[in-house]
Amino acid sequence: MHTLQISVYVLVLLIGLALIFDFMNGFHDAANAIATVVSTGVLKPQTAVAMAALFNFVAIFVVGLHVAGTVGKGTIDPGIVDQYVIFGALVGAIVWNLFTWYYGIPSSSSHALIGGLVGAAVAKSGTSALVGGGLWKTVQWILISPLMGFVFGSIIMLIVSWIFVRSTPRRVDKWFRRLQLVSAASYSLGHGGNDAQKTIGIIWMLLIAVGQVPAGGAEPPLWVIVSCYGAISFGTLFGGWRIVKTMGQKITKLKPVGGFCAESGGAITLLIASHFGVPVSTTHTITGAIVGVGSAQKMSAVRWGVAGNIVWAWVFTIPASAFVAAIAWWVGHHIM
After folding, report:
1. Helix (H, G, I), strand (E, B) or coil at 175
2. Which residues pair with 76 in a beta bridge?
3. What average pLDDT does the chain have?
4. Beta-carbon contacts of residue 325 (< 8 Å; ≥ 6 apart)
5. What is the pLDDT of residues 156-174, one digit of tens each?
6. What is the C-alpha separation between 49 and 233, in angstroms, rounded?
7. Residue 249 pLDDT > 50, yes or no?
8. Angle, alpha carbons 94-126-7 (nearest 5°)
């Protein structure tokens, strides 16, 4: 593969831009990790984000690098990667994240990044630059991850209801206010493990293109892994408060037992996806789990109109970020 020749300043700029996206990923998706535990009153917001940020980083020791491999080598042809493609992809994803954060829309940072890569790659080389297998896997999991979250969330809710059928509401609340700490930590572990790897994959792709690491290398450099996990953890620490209310209360009213079931269902889904190297959306996953928990109690407990509006944001994420990325790719040619 042809080695890309760029200045060290451009390389540093692109890596910095990738880490900014990673920070914003944590900032934007912090709501997914803490919304249920905050909305049920188990933890104060500041404590919740600190715990979420900690377990985002702890994931570095628990989760492998399969997702980074999918993003870095299985989304677009590595042979067409240059500074303009990376710049376009990151700008497309960042702009969409800012837009959805401002309006409090719980969209997917992951799919914004995938859309950015697609838009920039197609702008440069057409659809032949896309790796069909990796993209098809991602598209499939747009449907599978919320469905799995829904199924796991509802099943866990039904099992818990059956086990505690003779318990008083006070006793159930007491138990699950404690257990929700475990489920929230597990979800944050899954969030960090899946989402930080997407930025690792981008930087890995860039370093391969410029010849800094071998194309056949099994893993990216350690400094890339640590910096990406650190960036997403700091982003989570600063939190995306505009989205917390939508996720925690507008879809369905959650109690500690419901929060535990939703987080547990979401965590299981994220860890399974990370094991198989699928870059899924934490937003899709936890939304599906919350809807599943609400539906397990009664269908009318879910505000389906709110859930429907969130789904529309999912539909538009990849094409919208791809469109912005294509424009950013063109702009990059004039400023870099």
Report:
1. helix
2. 130
3. 83
4. 88, 89, 91, 92, 93, 115, 116, 117, 118, 119, 120, 123
5. 999 998 998 888 888 888 8
6. 9
7. no
8. 55
pLDDT of residue 243: 54
The string of pLDDT tens digits covering residues 174-211 is 888 888 888 888 888 988 888 888 899 899 888 888 88
**Could you tell me the two tokens for 31?**
């709501």
Ramachandran class of 53: left when φ > 0, alpha when ψ lies in -120 to 50, beta otherwise: alpha
Kindly report which listed range (6-15, 52-61, 69-78, 222-231) carries the lowest average pLDDT score: 69-78
Structure tokens, 61: 């020791």
38 and 187 in contact (C-beta within 8 Å)? no
Question: In terms of DSSP H, where are the helices of the chain?
Answer: 8-39, 45-58, 66-73, 83-102, 109-125, 132-163, 169-209, 222-238, 241-245, 256-275, 282-297, 304-335
**Above pLDDT 90, what percent of the chain?**
28
Please state, in angstroms and rounded to a whole number, the distance separating the CA atoms of residues 142 and 302: 21
Q: How far apart are CA 25 and CA 16, in angstroms?
A: 14
Residues 31 and 247: beta-carbon distance below 8 Å: yes
Tens-place pLDDT, residues 204-242: 888 888 888 876 666 889 999 999 999 999 988 886 555
Cα-only R_g, the chain: 20
Helix 282-297 with 8-39: angle, nearest 10 deg: 10
With contact defined as beta carbons under 8 Å apart, do 243 and 53 qualify? no
Residue bearing tokens 């032949």: 128
Do residues 279 and 317 lie in contact, with contact meaning Cβ atoms separated by under 8 Å?
Answer: no
DSSP characters for 7-59? Answer: -HHHHHHHHHHHHHHHHHHHHHHHHHHHHHHHHTTSS-HHHHHHHHHHHHHHG
Q: What are phi and psi of 154, to 5 degrees?
A: -70, -40
